[in-house]
Amino acid sequence: MTPITEVEGRRLALSNLDKVLYPATGFTKGELLHYYATVAAPLLAHLYDRPVSFLRYPDGPEGQRFFTKNVPPGTPSWVRTADVPHSRSAPSRQVLVQDLASLMWAANLVTEFHTPQWQADAPGQADRLVLDLDPGEPADVVECCAVALWLQERLSADGLHSYVKTSGSKGLHMLVPLEPTPSDRVSAYAKTLAVEAEAEHPELVVHRMTRSLRPGKVFVDFSQNAAAKTTATPYTLRARPEPTVSAPVTWEEVEACTDARELTFLADDIAPRLERHGDLLGPLINLNRAGRVP
What we know:
single chain, 294 residues, alpha+beta, six-stranded mixed beta sheet, four-stranded antiparallel beta sheet, 7 helices, globular
């Protein structure tokens, strides 16, 4: 029998709570739901008014995974949605996760949360820039840290303040709050940064996606600034062998990192980090220090 619970006056059926999603650690669906309830405040702040794309993995990371942007079948009528324009087709509707009830409904689908760099009321007007630092083996997050520190100085030279989180996979995401700016302009600037990083450190950085160029280097992926692209939302769990989280980190942690394990965070690590640091990406919410793309 599927348990029924009430969240903020909404009745939710939360299914398969004992199902093990991450066999390596025994982490269950019930624990996944508990995690999302625990981090709801900062996660909802980063999801708010951003159309959500879902990477679903209902049978765990080792099972089938599928990516969807459209409103899932059976979505309750009280879950808010928004029209999202597409350049080559008619607008689609996507979910907006605006409150705890919507978050728990979506979490029950077992999903990673991915969002664009713009909000639903201003599609294609980016209020943040993202650089995805993706290491090619044998490089790992330690090399990503070195690249991130160079990019932090480069952005600072243009008057831009950058923040950083783990991807929850192998690398890092750098985020920069911006005054709303057309996505194509942000993309062009982000590409310039990636090209400059490669020119400065050709032994360490590559800006092209070509797989054969990437072993031992850090791919600086600027493409997620395109209006149609999305990035893993801060605090989302990832479909990895363990319940890793895309977790905000301090620049001091980045500078001190000498081992990938130092910047690998599991679900149980996040509540203590929030208690200690608060939301390190808070400036992205209220656009503190929002800058202008040169």
